[in-house]
C-alpha cells in the first residue's frame, strides 16, 4: 500500500465517523400543527386547518346543491386549535374527514332568528309564558316577507298596507283607524353557521306557515255537517271563531253559510309571536232600554202589567281597542255622546216580596252592566283553552248588576279573578262576576234582579277594564258546568 492510498483510507474513516457522531447527536425540532377535537375529544393532528376546511367544502356538493350555497363549513361541534408538538403522527385531512362525515353535521352560513316568549294572560285568565322559538334561514329577507304574511293573517291586508304607507283616512263622524301595529315579542337576528340537521327555511311561504301554525303540516281536514255554522265547528274543535277564520283564509267571516260536505281546516294555529294592534273606534251604539218596576199593594202578589213600553236609545261612542293576534284583549272607553235617550219599560207588580229564588233559564234575566257596552271576548275556545264566560267592556266604576234574584254564595278576592262575586239563584244555576273594582254585597246577602252588587274594574289577572260574566249549572268550578250565557239566557 503506498502513501497516497493510506491517506485516502484514513480520510474516509474520519468522514464516516463524523457522520456517525453527528447523526447520533441529532436534536428533534418541535413543529406547529393543529389538534382536532370532536365534542371535546381529540380525534387527530393535522398540518393545516385551511386544508381541512377546503377539503370538506369540495366534498359537499350535495349540500351546496340542496341549499343553493357556494360554501360548506366545519361542523359546529368540531374545534381546531394550534399546537406545538414533537409527534410525527400527523393525520391527513382525508382521515379526519372520514372520521367526522357521518357523525357530525356540516354547516352553512345563514341567520339564527330567536323569537323570545312573553308573559301573557291566557284565556282562563292565568299568567303563562309563551315559548321561545328559534328559526334558521339563509336570507333575512325571507324572514321579513314571512312576518309580513303572518301579520296579514290577523289584520286585513288593505288596512295593514294603508297603515304602513300612512294612507289611512281620518275619521269623519264615525269609523275606525289603526294607531299602532307591532310585534310584542323581542326578536334577535344573528349571522352564524347553521347545522344542516336544523330545519332551514329557504322560502317565505313555508316560513310564514311555520310562524302561524308552529308546523309545516298545518292541515287537519273536517267535512262540514248539514246545519253547522263557523261558530259551531270552531267551538267543537276548541278554537275561537277568529282562529278558525285565520286557519281558513278562504272563509271571509263567521256569518258565511257553510254547505254540507264542504272541507275546512281545523288545524289549531300556534303563532310564534304576538301581533299587537291598537285601534281607535268611533261608532253608533244602541242603548238597550231597561225595565223599572212600580209596586201596587192592590195587585195580587206575582201579578204584573206594563205601564210604559220601552224604547231603545242611541249613543255615539269612542274607544280604543287593543288586539293580540286578532283577539280583543282590552277596550278603553274615551267618550259617550247620547244621541237619543232610552226610555225604560215600566212594569207594575203586585206587592213585592224579594225572593231568593230567581226566574228559570227560560225567563228574562237582567243585563249585568251599564249600557252601552262592548263584548271584548265571547264565551268559547281561544288557543285551545275554554274561556268560560263573556268579557264585557265598559267604564271603570260603572255599575254591575245582579242578573237574577238569588243569594250571594261567595264575595271575595283572589289573584286570578280579583274582586269576584258568585250568586246562587236557587234554581240550579249560578252567575259569577269577576275583576270588580268594588264589591257591594257579602256572602249570605239576598239580592234582587237588577240590584247594584259591584263596580267594574280590572283587578286580578285582567288586561283591561271589563266584567268577566259567566253562567254555571251547578257550583262554579267545583263540579259545575259552564254555559254560554249569551246563548242560554234572554236579557232585558
Helix content: 10-25%
For the sheet with most strands, the description reads:
8 strands, antiparallel
The total count of strands amounts to: 33
| Number of helical stretches of at least 4 residues | 10
Mean model confidence by pLDDT: 90
Structural class: alpha+beta
Shape: elongated
In the predicted model, the low-confidence regions spanning at least 5 consecutive residues are: 4-25
List keywords for this structure.
single chain; 492 residues; Resuscitation-promoting factor rpfb fold; eight-stranded antiparallel beta sheet; four-stranded mixed beta sheet; 10 helices; 20% helix; 38% strand
Protein model, in words:
Helices cover 20% and strands 38% of the residues. The chain is an alpha+beta fold and 492 residues long. The protein folds into four domains: 31-105, no CATH class; 115-265, no CATH class; 274-352, Single Sheet (Resuscitation-promoting factor rpfb fold), CATH 2.20.230; 354-492, Glucose Permease (Domain IIA) (Distorted Sandwich), CATH 2.70.70.10. Strands 20, 23, 25, 26, 27, 29, 31 and 32 form an eight-stranded antiparallel β-sheet that branches. It has a four-stranded mixed β-sheet with strand order 9-4-7-10. Strands 8-13-16-17 form a four-stranded antiparallel β-sheet, covered by helices on one side. A hairpin with a 7-residue loop joins strand 31 (466-473) and strand 32. Helix 2 crosses helix 4, helix 5 (140-154) crosses helix 7 (204-213) and helix 8 (230-236) crosses helix 9. Mean pLDDT is 90; it is low at 4-25.
Amino acid at each position: 500500500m503506498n502513501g497516497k492510498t493510506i491517506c485516502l483510507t484514513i480520510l474516509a474513516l474520519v468522514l464516516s465517523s463524523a457522520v456517525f457522531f453527528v447523526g447520533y447527536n441529532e436534536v428533534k425540532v418541535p413543529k406547529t400543527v393543529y389538534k382536532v377535537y370532536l365534542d371535546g375529544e381529540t380525534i387527530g393532528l393535522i398540518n393545516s386547518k385551511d386544508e381541512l376546511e377546503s377539503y370538506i367544502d369540495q366534498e359537499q356538493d350535495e349540500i351546496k346543491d340542496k341549499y343553493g350555497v357556494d360554501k360548506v363549513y366545519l361542523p359546529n361541534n368540531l374545534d381546531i386549535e394550534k399546537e406545538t408538538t414533537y409527534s410525527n403522527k400527523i393525520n391527513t385531512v382525508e382521515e379526519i374527514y372520514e372520521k367526522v362525515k357521518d357523525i357530525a353535521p356540516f354547516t352553512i352560513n345563514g341567520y339564527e332568528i330567536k323569537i323570545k316568549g312573553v308573559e301573557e294572560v291566557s284565556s282562563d285568565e292565568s299568567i303563562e309564558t309563551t315559548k321561545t322559538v328559534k328559526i334558521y334561514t339563509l336570507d333575512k329577507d325571507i324572514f321579513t316577507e314571512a312576518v309580513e304574511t303572518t301579520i296579514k293573517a290577523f289584520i286585513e291586508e288593505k288596512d295593514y298596507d294603508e297603515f304602513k304607507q300612512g294612507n289611512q283616512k281620518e275619521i269623519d263622524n264615525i269609523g275606525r283607524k289603526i294607531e299602532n301595529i307591532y310585534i310584542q315579542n323581542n326578536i334577535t337576528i344573528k349571522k352564524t353557521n347553521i347545522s344542516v340537521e336544523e330545519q332551514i327555511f329557504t322560502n317565505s311561504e313555508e316560513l310564514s306557515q311555520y310562524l302561524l301554525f308552529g308546523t309545516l303540516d298545518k292541515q287537519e281536514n273536517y267535512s262540514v255537517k248539514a246545519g253547522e255554522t263557523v261558530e259551531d265547528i270552531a267551538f267543537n274543535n276548541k278554537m275561537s271563531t277568529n282562529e278558525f277564520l285565520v286557519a281558513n283564509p278562504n272563509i271571509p267571516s263567521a256569518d258565511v253559510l257553510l254547505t254540507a260536505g264542504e272541507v275546512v281546516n281545523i288545524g289549531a294555529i300556534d303563532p310564534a309571536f304576538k301581533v299587537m294592534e291598537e285601534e281607535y273606534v268611533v261608532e253608533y251604539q244602541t242603548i238597550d232600554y231597561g225595565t223599572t218596576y212600580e209596586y201596587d199593594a192592590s195587585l195580587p202578589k206575582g201579578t204584573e202589567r206594563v205601564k210604559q213600553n220601552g224604547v231603545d236609545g242611541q249613543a255615539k261612542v269612542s274607544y280604543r281597542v287593543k288586539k293580540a293576534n286578532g283577539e280583543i284583549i282590552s277596550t278603553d272607553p274615551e267618550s259617550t255622546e247620547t244621541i237619543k235617550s232610552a226610555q225604560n219599560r215600566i212594569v207594575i207588580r203586585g206587592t213585592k216580596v224579594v225572593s231568593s229564588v230567581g226566574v228559570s233559564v227560560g225567563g228574562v234575566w237582567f243585563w249585568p252592566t251599564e249600557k252601552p257596552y262592548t263584548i271584548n271576548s265571547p264565551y268559547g275556545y281561544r288557543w285551545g283553552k275554554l274561556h268560560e264566560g263573556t268579557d264585557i267592556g265598559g267604564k271603570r266604576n260603572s255599575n254591575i248588576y245582579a242578573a237574577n234574584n238569588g243569594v250571594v254564595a261567595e264575595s271575595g278576592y283572589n289573584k286570578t279573578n280579583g274582586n269576584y262575586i258568585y250568586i246562587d239563584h236557587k234554581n240550579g244555576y249560578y252567575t259569577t262576576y269577576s275583576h270588580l273594582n268594588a264589591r257591594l254585597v257579602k256572602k249570605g246577602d239576598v239580592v234582587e234582579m237588577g240590584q247594584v252588587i259591584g263596580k267594574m274594574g280590572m283587578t286580578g289577572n285582567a288586561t283591561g277594564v271589563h266584567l268577566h260574566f259567566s253562567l254555571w249549572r251547578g257550583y262554579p268550578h267545583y263540579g259545575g258546568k259552564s254555559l254560554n250565557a249569551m246563548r242560554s239566557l234572554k236579557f232585558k
